[in-house]
């Protein structure tokens, strides 16, 4: 009888220890754990795949970039237009996935008031040209940040540095929102936000 009681106690202790281990493990890997929730609350601005407005709003990068013919351009050359700046690369999978939607967005809204400026971080202009041909990118102009100058100026503290990075600028060159990660740029959410910035009734701050 005593032996049976001891075995039962050992089993209960072992079960309790296993439960404790499971709780500890879940707190480390479960995104809904208290620890993960606290981290999210401490970084409310950093949400991948969401359009967010940083405060204070970062300045528009002043660094130049190349077009297909090797001419150096600057974002200030497009002043007066609403600009959707996209930093991408042919070796970046999320970038590759969203490029067709950026091309479609340029076809839909591009013109005197709006332009998508997709700047590649590739080292070879030919790689970018080949990509445009293979993926039927017909509406976007080829641009390349050959010295990583533009993307470096876009970095802000506590914000993801991976590609793609997309930023909407108003007509005065001020950042409206930014997004880290791929996105569907012809979704209702994207079109609504961009058309609001393009609208002549957009509030000048």
Account of the protein in words:
The protein is of the alpha/beta class. The chain has 2 domains: 2-42; 65-198, Glutaredoxin. Helices cover 40% and strands 16% of the residues. It is built from 6 helices and 7 strands, in the order H-H-E-E-E-H-E-H-E-H-E-E-H. It has helices spanning 2-29, 34-42, 93-109, 125-134, 149-154, 188-198, and strands spanning 65-67, 72-73, 82-88, 114-120, 143-144, 165-169, 175-180. A 7-stranded mixed sheet has the order 2-1-5-4-3-6-7. A hairpin with a 4-residue loop joins strand 1 and strand 2 (72-73). The protein is globular and about 40 Å long.
Separate helix tally: 6
Q: What is the average per-residue confidence, as pLDDT, rounded to a whole number?
A: 82
Largest sheet: 7 strands, mixed
Mass-distribution shape: globular
State the helical fraction. 25-40%
Structural class: alpha/beta
Ranges where pLDDT stays below 50 over 5 or more residues in a row are 11-46
Gist of the model:
By secondary structure, the chain is α/β, with parallel strands linked by helices. It has helices spanning 2-29, 34-42, 93-109, 125-134, 149-154, 188-198, and strands at 65-67, 72-73, 82-88, 114-120, 143-144, 165-169, 175-180. Strands 2-1-5-4-3-6-7 form a seven-stranded mixed β-sheet.
